[in-house]
Amino acid sequence: MKRSLCLSILILTFVCFANVAAQSPSKILKQANKALGGEKILQTVQSWQKKGKITRLKDSASGSFEMRAAQPNFYHSRFDLNGFETEVGYNGKSGWMRDSRDGLRTLTGEASRDFAAEANFRNARWLDYKKQKAKITSGGKANLNGKAANVLMLTTAKGVSIKMYFDPTTGLLIREEIPAGDLIKTFDYSDYRAVNGVNEPFTIKTKLGEDAYEIKL
Hints:
Shape: globular
Strand content: over 45%
CATH topology: outer membrane lipoprotein receptor (LolB), chain A
Order of helices and strands: HHHEEEEEEHEEEEEEE
Number of strands: 13
Structural class: alpha+beta
Largest sheet: 13 strands, antiparallel
Distance between the termini: 58 Å
């Protein structure tokens, strides 16, 4: 009897694990949409703006941070660290960047292609990926800071792959990995709060190359 009970528990555990492991991209996105406030509300967002404080972790240099987007694919982000300004933008056709040392320059090649994909993602997330002829596939599961995460890959029609990590319990987006030319930009999200019906992260940790930052909105 005891052996039979143990076997039943083992089988049940395996079945439950298999169901979680086999969770489809559509189910993960449905859970994410609900966690963020609902697909209908997300679809009504035409523009957004975020402001806060940014700190470079290696030396505690800090300053103001601002990020904004407007449909269909306009995007702008700027920050300063102890007075040194950096900003990037996409005007719907091309991307550019400017800083206090090198001035203004236009993005070209892979950097331009990757930033265009990011600008579109900042506006529409994954909501219209089919319309954009992008594909979303499963990336399996990952261990993120000691916790499990569901991984999805969004690949644009031009071949740019954005990696998304979702909390399997809450459904919230907790990390993005976005290509930027030869580098990968990483964004970790936490401290979600409701803003006009949409759950937004108020703490963002981002890394590009050797530089890591924390943003508090």
